[in-house]
Amino acid sequence: GFDVAEDGSVAAGCHDNHIYVTNAEGGLLWKLDVGKMSRHVQFSPDDRLLFTGPHADGDAVLLDATTGSPIWSYRGQDSWLRNSRFSPDGRRIVAGFSGGQLVMLNDKGIELWEANIGEFPMVLEIDSDYNVYAAGKNRELFAFDASGQLRWRYRVANHVVTAGSNVMSDDGQFIVVGT
User: How many Cβ atoms sit within 10 Å of the Cβ of residue 89?
Assistant: First the structure.
């Protein structure tokens, strides 16, 4: 997994059990051994934080994006972190794990709710009201409210949902998924 910050810094989670962060010119800023291969990294909206997993202390970890120092870790799914999104204000993170679990965490790493969509989310979005939208290979698009209650689910005919990065309009009114 990889993500690019506004300043051009790049974070990469690799199969060699490390997270790497480089500056815009490709110079290594830091690397961190997380103990297992990493398939996902994401910068916070202000680029000060980096969310990734797994980590030696848990299934996911929030890191200082400048130094790689852990801020808090989350343990509870015992499966691979496959996708995540910060809320636009950076106060919540929705994390999607390999078994289909979705977990909403606050900015202190406390679990607010959990749901399951049956397959890890390839599409994962959160709007400014903390509503979550998720879809994976199970061919359904799910919508959850800020407390984790299912708002609706929509069956995608014929094909699996395969595309899903930045697929929601800024105002949260539209979401587009590729199949």
Answer: 11
Asked if 104 contacts 96 with a C-beta cutoff of 8 angstroms, the reply is: no
Residues 6+ apart with CB under 8 A from 91: 106, 107
Mean pLDDT of 123-132: 94
How far lies 81's CA from each of 24, 27, 59, in Å?
A: 26, 27, 7
Residues 139-158, buried b or exposed e (16+ Cβ, 10 A)?
bbbbbbebebeeeeeeeeee
Alpha helices (H) in 18-123, listed in sequence order: none
Give whole-number Cα distances, 163 to 28, 104, 135, 144, in Å.
Answer: 30, 22, 9, 19
Tell me the residue type at 50.
Answer: L
In terms of Cβ atoms closer than 10 Å to its own Cβ (0-12, 13-18, 19+), residue 16 is: exposed
DSSP 8-class letter at 107: T
Q: What is the pLDDT of residues 70-87, one digit of tens each?
A: 999 999 877 889 999 999
Query: Under a CB-based contact definition with an 8 Å cutoff, are residues 63 and 35 in contact?
Result: no
